[in-house]
Amino acid sequence: MSRPRIVIVGAGFAGYRTARTLSRLTRHQADITLLNPTDYFLYLPLLPQVAAGILEPRRVSVSLSGTLPHVRLVLGEADGIDLDGRTVHYTGPEGEEGTLPYDRLVLAAGSVNKLLPIPGVAEHAHGFRGLPEALYLRDHVTRQVELAAAADDRAECAARCTFVVVGAGYTGTEVAAHGAMYTDAQVRKHPMRTGMRPRWMLLDVAPRVMPEMDERLSRTAERVLRQRGVDVRMGTSVKEATHDGVVLTDGTSVDTRTLVWCVGVRPDPLVESLGLPMERGRLLVDPHLQVPGRPELFACGDVAAVPDLNQPGQYTSMTAQHAWRHGKVCAHNVVASLGRGQRRAYRHRDLGFVVDLGGAKAAANPLGVAMSGPAAGAVTRGYHLAAMPGNRVRVAADWLLDAVLPRQAVQLGLVRSWSVPLESSSPEVARVPGRPEVPGRPEGAGRPATPTTPDTQRSDTEPEGEQAGGTTTDAAAKNQPDSEPARSRPGGEPAGNQPGGAGAMSRPGSQPAENQPGGEPAKAQPGDQPAKNQPGGEPAKAQPGGQPAKNQPGGEPAKNQPHGERAQKGPSGSPRASGKPRRAVEAAGPRPARGGSGRPGKAQRASGAGSAGKRPTAPSGPSRSAGPPTDPGPEPPANQPPPGPDIAPGPVKRTDGRAAEGDS
Q: Please, what is the average pLDDT of the chain?
């Protein structure tokens, strides 16, 4: 009898708990496969502490392979499920595709950011659902405070040190509470020139903070926020978002560079493509977490609408507490469907909530007992340590260090604004240039957001010379290898000095560089004169001062080759001299900047960006001994003097039949 195949889609609270419980219950008698975009389980309740610099990112990331030793981990995103064929189609992190057959399927794909039809929010706001978004917010807030401290203009300083958080739920409240402490600590060390202080705003259309929780928790949280100077505005939300600020529903205009979107979550759009009964975007299941009419299909977590047996007619809320308990019940029911054990119905008893407000402040009601202050803080951190499936000692050590040492307010710049779009089907994965499309995903998922204008898409926190998508600006793009003319650049001029592109417009005399790779064909191939400007041929006639052209693609000339023979191709596809070490080629001139990741994608090739995966050749241009480019002079004489002493000596074939010292 073959071993049953169990596939789990998603490794959030529900998926991780299902995999861990199944591994224990099946006793290695089943093949368990876990499909997830990342190799870690993210403990979401501590994510605000990562954004505030209290915990390092790996503290809240629990290794899947390290804690699930008998579960096969497959990295990828599910983009299609064949219910009749019992297969799951997925796309891997490098674009590879695959299928996973199953006998039992558990859907625990989780949730994504909830969007509202508000103009400008999708373009200018950022969510808070994954580790990349927390790292981006930490860098962004740090950078804005540093820029505000150096600004002389009061209006610019006020805009940069104003932070707007939309959504006063569990996540938004903790983000505002920890963020206010983080920025206040920065300003104490480096006061602003204008004397201003950071300003945090918390907005929500609800009548009170954290409306889904106990009212006593709400009062405690709001009191702590107002003590720290947070501007709490209930019954107010964002009407419009722009690059320079937001317009509120009460007509107030707020200048800001930071908009954090914590309005809520919605189920992963994967379940919408199944064609099964839904309940407000969630897959409808019975109390045993099984899809009606599909005995092999189970769902749990945020994608499942699980009936609440304690409140008939309602469904369990989309919280981590429910998802964690869903996973355990789901694992028992999957094993029962295989003929071992009895099925269980999901019945939840509320044990209370904890809210960490930073420092010694917290709000908690364990077993219905309302608590605040240091006692609530101790209960909150004790609960998190007990609930985490790993990294407990490291988390406790970081808390201890944060209590006795100042925080390190530094920006690493690892996550850019365009790599964490608000509209994304996988907020736990940062977008990278060239990442392949994921079929069946919403528009914008699986790739960076398409830039519209420099003012609306490019974050003010990014360097001046860097644009979204990993491309460079005009000055750097003119020396990119294998590139087409930059038709979309200001002025519409082609990008000069690009091997494989248009002619070198920036050369003295504005003549196209003949016989460049990808340019015009060589005018005198074997049997005639050697091609101009090629290694071993005539000196470059358009070079200032009559010096031979250095820094041509390919570096050193090919030794002992006949006049009409082309230089041999190196591994990168550019002409290189045979027998010359790579060091000599690199010494010919600086390399052009790489444009993006090491693996170019479809979008880069279509837009004419350089092939980043290949080794770029040195940019062509005048020799170092020629000095800065000036007006082109007359053609150099046939018997020009040898190059200067800064050029490596060596015999070179000349067109007049004589040998000379030096490289051309």
A: 74
